[in-house]
Amino acid sequence: MTDGGAAAPGVRGNRRGVTVNGWRIAACLGIYVLASVVMGREVLAHLSESIANDAGDPLLTTAILHWVATHVPYTDAWYQLPIFHPSRDTLTDRNVRGSRG
């Protein structure tokens, strides 16, 4: 008897056409999501109340990522992030994020 459908070599299927690998992937994803929720339960419980507080300045990082994602790279507009208005070319400054060197 056959399982009613052609499966890829080395992949077993059941009568509904769902492969064993599909169940493994779904199980791994479920375990990963569950572990993430358990480990991040304190953060998830207070998402609307606070902003992450660390030395990396998450608001500046978010602003830069948003700006870079919404402007065409290496154009004049791309370098004009208005963080030190009215100064121009603020993203060309190497010390925007406090890096040294």
Shape category: elongated
> Helix coverage percent of residues?
25-40%
Q: Helices and strands, in N-to-C order?
A: HHH
- C-alpha end-to-end distance: 70 Å
Q: Tell me the number of helical segments per DSSP (H or I, 4 or more residues long).
A: 3
Instruction: Tell me the number of structural domains.
Output: 2
> Largest sheet, if any?
none
Tell me the strand percentage band.
under 5%
Poorly predicted parts: none
Number of separate strands: 0
- Class computed from helices, strands and strand pairing: mainly alpha
Give the averaged pLDDT, no decimals. Answer: 76
Question: Radius of gyration, Cα only, in angstroms?
Answer: 24 Å
Give me a quick take on this structure.
With 101 residues, the protein is an all-alpha fold.
Give the helices and strands, then pairings:
Elements: H1 20-39, H2 41-45, H3 58-70
